[in-house]
């Protein structure tokens, strides 16, 4: 039910737009499809993904000769569910990490303000709840506030944090964090990084250096490169995903702030376009307001 609450604004806005899109129409025709296209684009599903959905519905309408607008919701639900199935979107139900990787290392990337620190704190809390030993690494050494805020979360969740002075080498912080985690026999390491997109070459170099140095301590790390995107920024989130996937190999996504926005459709578009699983969604500022993303629940919640 938290998911329903988190998606409330997206749903309300989507349904009122859908109602307008089919008003006075009983048959799905070109006009209705045009309107539907507008609804999806304005719900931040993204142009490419919207066109994919429209093309499928168009084909269905052509094949079946007559499709009533009263069926449109059901059809849309099926098409979106199908689309999400083709992408490897998260199907998880609980927070978990592979048992054969210890420590399991998550490197978190994303620009400032998207909810990176909050997501790290919430994740640390979830893992700790399961009895896992968590260590945080304050790898965003570019801003003093980033280190301080991560410290606040470390205190709140009561997990150790490894940090250095502002301006120190993030790779060195990552090295220390992993060494400390190995010494403590920790289960999970979550490393924060700075996300300065305006300097792409630097970003790329910095992230690959962090990876290289971490691999001196634990083979094949990081196990997960989690990109945090602010769902309320719609198209900016797409742009950031584009930039970060160019700079490093992103293996999963967290989409935050879905509670405060009508732009929740972004989850559908981003997972379709980048073929990277949305693993977590943020639905509030509280410590418990992070959920494992599950596509079935998402579609159910959207269309119920
Ligand atoms: P960072 O700069 O990327 O580390 O961003 P922060 O973690 O400091 O978050 C920026 C702001 O967004 C803070 O005020 C957070 O409380 C807020 N925030 C983060 N995640 C969510 C979320 O899922 N929902 C809401 N409503 N606010 C969030």
TrEMBL record:
<keyword id="KW-1003">Cell membrane</keyword>
<dbReference type="GO" id="GO:0005525">
    <property type="term" value="F:GTP binding"/>
</dbReference>
<feature type="binding site">
    <location>
        <begin position="256"/>
        <end position="259"/>
    </location>
    <ligand>
        <name>GTP</name>
    </ligand>
</feature>
<dbReference type="InterPro" id="IPR000897">
    <property type="entry name" value="SRP54_GTPase_dom"/>
</dbReference>
<dbReference type="InterPro" id="IPR003593">
    <property type="entry name" value="AAA+_ATPase"/>
</dbReference>
<dbReference type="GO" id="GO:0005737">
    <property type="term" value="C:cytoplasm"/>
</dbReference>
<keyword id="KW-0675">Receptor</keyword>
<dbReference type="GO" id="GO:0005886">
    <property type="term" value="C:plasma membrane"/>
</dbReference>
<comment type="similarity">
    <text>Belongs to the GTP-binding SRP family. FtsY subfamily.</text>
</comment>
<comment type="function">
    <text>Involved in targeting and insertion of nascent membrane proteins into the cytoplasmic membrane. Acts as a receptor for the complex formed by the signal recognition particle (SRP) and the ribosome-nascent chain (RNC).</text>
</comment>
<keyword id="KW-0472">Membrane</keyword>
<dbReference type="GO" id="GO:0005047">
    <property type="term" value="F:signal recognition particle binding"/>
</dbReference>
<keyword id="KW-0547">Nucleotide-binding</keyword>
<dbReference type="Pfam" id="PF00448">
    <property type="entry name" value="SRP54"/>
</dbReference>
<dbReference type="GO" id="GO:0003924">
    <property type="term" value="F:GTPase activity"/>
</dbReference>
<keyword id="KW-0342">GTP-binding</keyword>
<dbReference type="InterPro" id="IPR027417">
    <property type="entry name" value="P-loop_NTPase"/>
</dbReference>
<feature type="domain" description="SRP54-type proteins GTP-binding">
    <location>
        <begin position="277"/>
        <end position="290"/>
    </location>
</feature>
<keyword id="KW-0963">Cytoplasm</keyword>
<comment type="subunit">
    <text>Part of the signal recognition particle protein translocation system, which is composed of SRP and FtsY.</text>
</comment>
<keyword id="KW-0378">Hydrolase</keyword>
<feature type="binding site">
    <location>
        <begin position="110"/>
        <end position="117"/>
    </location>
    <ligand>
        <name>GTP</name>
    </ligand>
</feature>
<dbReference type="GO" id="GO:0006614">
    <property type="term" value="P:SRP-dependent cotranslational protein targeting to membrane"/>
</dbReference>
<dbReference type="Pfam" id="PF02881">
    <property type="entry name" value="SRP54_N"/>
</dbReference>
<dbReference type="InterPro" id="IPR042101">
    <property type="entry name" value="SRP54_N_sf"/>
</dbReference>
<dbReference type="InterPro" id="IPR036225">
    <property type="entry name" value="SRP/SRP_N"/>
</dbReference>
<dbReference type="InterPro" id="IPR004390">
    <property type="entry name" value="SR_rcpt_FtsY"/>
</dbReference>
<dbReference type="InterPro" id="IPR013822">
    <property type="entry name" value="Signal_recog_particl_SRP54_hlx"/>
</dbReference>
<feature type="binding site">
    <location>
        <begin position="192"/>
        <end position="196"/>
    </location>
    <ligand>
        <name>GTP</name>
    </ligand>
</feature>
<protein>
    <recommendedName>
        <fullName>Signal recognition particle receptor FtsY</fullName>
        <ecNumber>3.6.5.4</ecNumber>
    </recommendedName>
</protein>
């Amino acid at each position: 039910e938290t998911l329903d609450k988190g998606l409330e604004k997206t749903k309300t806005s989507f349904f009122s737009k859908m109602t307008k899109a089919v008003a006075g129409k009983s048959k799905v025709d070109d006009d209705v499809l045009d309107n539907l296209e507008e609804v999806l684009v304005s719900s931040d599903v993204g142009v490419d993904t919207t066109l994919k959905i429209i093309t499928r519905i168009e084909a269905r309408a052509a094949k079946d000769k007559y499709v009533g607008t009263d069926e449109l919701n059901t059809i849309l639900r099926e098409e979106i569910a199908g689309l999400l199935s083709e992408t490897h979107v998260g199907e998880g139900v609980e927070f978990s990490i592979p048992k054969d990787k210890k420590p399991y290392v998550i490197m978190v990337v994303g620009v400032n303000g998207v909810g990176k620190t909050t997501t790290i704190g919430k994740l640390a809390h979830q893992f700790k709840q399961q009895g896992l030993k968590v260590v945080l690494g304050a790898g965003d050494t570019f801003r003093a506030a980033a280190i301080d805020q991560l410290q606040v979360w470390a205190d709140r969740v009561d997990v150790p944090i490894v940090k250095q002075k502002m301006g120190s080498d993030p790779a060195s912080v990552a090295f220390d964090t992993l060494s400390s985690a190995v010494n403590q026999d920790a289960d999970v390491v979550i490393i924060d990084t700075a996300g300065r997109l305006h300097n792409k070459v630097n970003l790329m170099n910095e992230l690959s250096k962090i990876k290289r140095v971490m691999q001196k301590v634990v083979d094949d790390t990081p196990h997960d490169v989690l990109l945090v995107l602010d769902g309320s920024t719609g198209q900016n989130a797409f742009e950031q995903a584009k930039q970060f996937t160019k700079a490093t190999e992103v293996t999963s996504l967290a989409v935050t702030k879905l509670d405060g926005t009508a732009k929740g459709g972004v989850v559908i578009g981003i997972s379709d376009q980048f073929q990277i699983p949305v693993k977590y969604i943020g639905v509030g500022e509280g410590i418990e307001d992070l959920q494992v993303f599950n596509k079935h629940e998402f579609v159910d919640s959207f269309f119920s």
